[in-house]
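Appendix B. Chain record.
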Amino acid sequence: MRPLVGLLLVALLGFAACGGGSNKKASSTTTSSGAASSTSAAPSGGTSSTTVNTPPSVTYVFPTLSLPCQQIPPPVTPVTSPSQSASVLLVRVDEQGDRCVDHVVFSFTSKSPDPPGYVITYGTPPFTGDASGAPIAVKGTAFIVVRMKPAYGFDFETGKTTYTGPKRVTPAGANHVTEIVETGDFEGTLTWVIGLNVKRPFSVEATGKPQTQLAVTIS
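Structure tokens predicted for this chain:
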């Protein structure tokens, strides 16, 4: 009997040993699977991080249509220079138009850095020469009278005429100006009349050296 009992004990111990080895192998397989899962998740996490940190593309949209012409309010006339100015000598009269407005520009030479003096208002025909009193016709239905003083078209120091351009200017392609006509160069006052197709608002800007000018902008 004792040899039989001994054989049974040996068999039971061997079975227990085999069962323990099987459990250890299963545990090892589970751990390996977990590590593989963690390794595959790392690249995925890195890719996600790169996508988040990339700056978003921005498209800037700018307007391509021109704004409509803006009409300025009519001025309270007469429009006068803020202070008395030194004398200026007229050298040029120009009309510069763009899509919305016309600029009538009187350019001068002067020994003073001050801008030219002026009195500007709407006038009613008939217009006459300041010295002669002779009638002077101006094309248009509304008229801006520009008086600049002290201002001359002749330099008495040199005895030379400074303004040698036409005394009647008909601009081509202007928006509102029909004609610009000199009606006086007398006793230190230069007078020009700007004829318009219709009465419109205007603004005035005078500048001193290095560009001594008087600009009347009709909108």
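Further analysis of this model is presented in Appendix C.
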